[in-house]
Design a protein that fits this description.
The protein has 1 helix and 21 strands. By secondary structure, it is mainly beta.
């Protein structure tokens, strides 16, 4: 039992206890026999990631404590002189964007009507540099698409990058690429109406695997796929649904192209019906 406060009249002690009913703190007034009973909630159990990345979200969560009126979350990074409050409220989770830190740690406590719980504190979480993995662009709405959607990924780790591309939640592309990989998502291949594009990249850094994500929404004109013939030339290596993407160092025939690899598209009525419905492939 540890003396936590003394206001000249009442002593308050912090006593830890692991059962779910909380714990009692009893302070004996100095000048009378009256006993003051203070109920404090038990400390929450804190959950933090094992690794964080500069510029990416750091999610933190904790368990509910009986008799708690709220929770206070604080953070301390290698650049901080003292603990800084990140969150105060009744939720059981919070997040923030990692700064240019080498490490960061968090602590949380439950607040009660008369007393607070002890702090639950994480260990130091390594924070890797933003240059370890970068996906071009910013999250948000791309609006109504009229052009292909370009993106690139880079890393200063020197390691291969695992890349996943999803459209409307469905996996379109999964491959290993090198830093500097650049690609475009053909607008003609995207489903019409409102849609989503999600890119997830993962690379092995010195402190462990790190990931970066990019999330876009878009609107596709329902008549876009019927505006004349498919484009010829300049599309080799671009993503096409149901095909293996060509990328630097890749080889072999590309499904949907002629066997000579000229880059000229081969008509795909099955793909067109899937994307646009029944009709003439060339928009006639």
């Amino acid at each position: 039992m540890v003396l936590s406060s003394w206001d000249g009249d009442t002593a308050r002690f912090a006593v830890g206890q692991t059962d779910i009913y909380g714990y009692e703190v009893r302070g004996q007034k100095q000048y009378s026999n009256e006993t003051v009973v203070i109920y404090a909630p038990p400390a929450p159990a804190l959950t933090t990631p094992s690794l964080a990345m500069e510029g990416q979200t750091v999610p933190v969560s904790w368990t509910a404590s009986i008799n708690a009126t709220g929770y206070i979350l604080q953070r301390k990074a290698d650049t901080d002189e003292d603990w800084t409050q990140v969150y105060s409220g009744q939720a059981l989770s919070s997040s923030e964007t990692a700064g240019a830190w080498s490490w960061v740690q968090y602590r949380v406590k439950a607040t009660g009507e008369k007393a607070d719980s002890a702090w639950a504190t994480s260990g130091e979480i390594p924070v890797v540099s933003a240059s370890a993995l970068v996906i071009s662009g910013q999250d948000g709405d791309l609006g109504t698409l009229v052009n292909d959607v370009p993106y690139s990924v880079s890393s200063d780790t020197g390691n291969q990058i695992s890349l996943e591309l999803r459209v409307n939640g469905a996996l379109w592309t999964a491959l290993e690429v090198s830093s500097g990989y650049a690609q475009s998502i053909p607008v003609i291949d995207l489903p019409t109406g409102a849609g989503t594009i999600d890119i997830l990249a993962t690379v092995q850094a010195s402190t462990g695997a790190v990931s970066a994500a990019r999330a876009w929404t878009y609107t596709q004109d329902t008549g876009h796929h019927l505006r004349g013939p498919l484009r010829r030339g300049g599309v080799a290596g671009r993503h096409r649904r149901g095909q293996v993407p060509r990328h630097p160092g890749g080889g072999g025939a590309h499904p949907g192209r002629d066997d000579a690899g000229s880059g000229d598209p081969v008509p795909r009525p099955d793909l067109h019906r899937q994307l646009c419905g029944d009709g003439d492939l060339w928009g006639g």
